[in-house]
């Protein structure tokens, strides 16, 4: 198998697209901006979902499902939401097709125009808070901790697989609380859940912080974010968690009777993550040979490949590999034995390297004689021979080692790419030369934020230590305006 | 808690709606024909999905995900599909909202009209076979066994929760095979998977058969169906499995090179089931006190309710219940201890009866002294006292017993409501007096089928033994036309 991958250094964007295509995880669909998640890619999403779903349930959340359509008028109910939220969305205006008179196909029946257009949900705050008005009467109904696994649609102009697509698979948590304090704690707790997942399962290091007023979610009081760094040293916002204050409660008139029987507005949060997590993972670990999957997310953790020339060698080798497969499976490790005979071993090697399978075991006639097996680890692209009898112990440890190694490597890369600067000149030079994250003082105004973006393409990814700013720790001068700054913020060119 | 349920005999339709509403499994949404699956109902769907998903994977299928939108032109590619399939669907014509000039909300931006309208998928054969053309080149790529968990939209004029809604949560399997025989075997195998699930998990007896030419899926060669009977003695089609022949392969030009290198069209199947399964389950087991859930699908299998008057009794009772809860949980049984103090026990009894929780355990001060506990089974609405120490053994057995009892009761009811008639007069009388299923001879023509439907509302639910008809077993005369019939078919008034 000729990998035919472009080198990462030469054409990062094409390298990314080709990895996705050639590893068979996804492909571009004929529908503008939508991708098809192929079985291998969907299996990664299934692993992601099942781990996160358990985390959500362990923190007291329940799943529910709300309609895919939202009446147009709902979007106008929360002022900041309608103003700030992307208006690019899919709009359903008719509900019937009819046969064309020329018999050549179907056309929209003009008589089926809807009285009120329906929007394919870009996010579900409005329809969910409309329900919460019916569901919440008293403090006994709170907290209400709901999550939804769903698809949403945003009509993005420029799309990139996993990072920005028209249709997105995601989950959205929407919670309601009796107090501000509890809602803020929920927002922060869910950010921790995401950080735990990204760092300990996807092996992707994150920077926690809050968004500026300009970058926060339309309708939120405060948006928390996790920022990751890609191999081409751009920031990628992995996910966000929003403290909504009482904004949606007021827009949808959701009040509860407190213990004294007095009516109060409900405090809200929302938080979500998407298949972008997979994009972030790809952009953190992959190399010129293809995907590199962290063992905890890999649909196949170990692949077994037989090598034989003569027919009489075949059965003994396959028998031994089946035994190995069964013992590893019994340990709960997902193993694949690739015994296809119309594909040469070398081709298989390339294929599973492309697919990022963490460990490859190869068994040939001579190995069998010596009771050894060749073990290849995808993260280091290194191989050695080990005794077959030791595999049982060795494989689980090696999977852990690979998982840790990927995280540590990514962490080192990320940390090496956070730079502090004290002047706008240095800022621009560093950005041009090194890209990566830049910590710098900012005067806190939208004006400066937009000017810097306009002049350098860098945006404020987050305020990493908002408590420092609140407590007036780390004062300084804005690199752009020279005005007083309450603390450094994190800039980067972002995806 | 006043249940306030209408009696089933008096107003079946309202009884059904109120059960769904009051048991908190779902509610009508503000979006026409769409329902909201509340956490308790979604948990039933999660159980359904996880059991079925395992069955699909155990039979070699993989999950994938295709776009929610289908370009309008795709629907015209398979002639029968466009002709026969419901044209009532949600049509996306625009992709942008803009602020109204009067500042009062948003409106559709006329400049954002799409060149080709997109249809929110009512089913995905077209977009999936379009992909299969790229995915299938050789016999080595076959069989291709793909399933998708997704939402689909059909613009139904009359909707009923779980049975017929505008948006539907479902799964759709789409497989491709090298031979006709293999595709037919797949179609039948998946029907068996559904039957296994319905009978052994949902405790809903099914009748297997094939649909008439008139009732089959648009684009299929043959549609297999599972028919169930509701408590008001109507037929409810639970799900279908379609042998597609080479229809979609031809429409999308999907060929494979066989072992001799010759190009052949691929054989296809598709099969799906929806949240209607839950509707079928409700309409099979519920009673005037509410839902009755089969233990294997119940989100809560056992509920524990403490009874105490004095504060000093409380802790001892709760401690004992927590112990019981922990031992049952350790056995993998989902248990809920309802220790809410602002709700009286009698209210809780009603609530969990409404919710169909299979077993209720109630512990009061006197029970604690005697080391006994009251055990209530929802299926029989009967209670007795048992020794607490025996619960560990008793509960798993009782759950099995309830599961079996529900199935056997439903089976008896169903079997008592299949009647054979030999004349159209008897047919009409039986239908009027008894409703239920009627087995009768039919001449095999669409004309007769439609006439009977027009005159009696009864449709042919299925041909239960197509092999008899093929083999000319059971000849007779059509009850309507007196023309020769090759075998009896199953009629009923259907949902």
The DSSP helix count of chain A reads 14
The CATH homologous superfamily name of the largest domain in chain A equals Bira Bifunctional Protein, Domain 2
Top-tier CATH class of the largest domain in chain A: Alpha Beta
Number of domains of chain A: 3
Oligomeric state of shown chains: homodimer
Largest interface: A-B, 67 and 68 residues
* Spatial arrangement of strands, main beta sheet of chain A: 3-8-9-15-12-11-10
Return residue spans of chain A where pLDDT drops below 50 for at least 5 consecutive residues.
none
Major sheet attributes of chain A: 7 strands, mixed
- Helix coverage percent of chain A: 25-40%
Summary, kept brief:
Chain A has 495 residues and is an alpha+beta fold.
Structural overview:
The structure is a homodimer of 495-residue chains. The first copy, chain A, is an alpha+beta fold. Chain A folds into 3 domains: 23-92 and 104-285, Bira Bifunctional Protein, Domain 2 (BirA Bifunctional Protein, domain 2, 2-Layer Sandwich); 302-398, Anticodon-binding domain (Rossmann fold), CATH 3.40.50.800; 418-492, C-terminal domain of ProRS (Translation Initiation Factor IF3, 2-Layer Sandwich), CATH 3.30.110. The first copy, chain A, has helices at 12-22, 39-58, 79-84, 125-135, 180-200, 247-251, 276-285, 311-330, 345-354, 365-370, 391-415, 424-434, 446-456, 466-470, and strands spanning 26-28, 35-37, 62-63, 69-71, 88-99, 106-108, 113-120, 144-153, 167-177, 207-210, 222-229, 235-245, 255-257, 263-265, 267-274, 302-306, 335-337, 359-363, 372-377, 382-387, 418-420, 437-441, 459-462, 476-477, 484-485, 488-492. In chain A, helix 2 (39-58) packs antiparallel against helix 5 (180-200). Chain A is globular. The mean pLDDT of chain A is 95. Chains A and B meet through strand 2, helix 2, strand 3, strand 4 and strand 5 of A and strand 2, helix 2, strand 3, strand 4 and strand 5 of B.
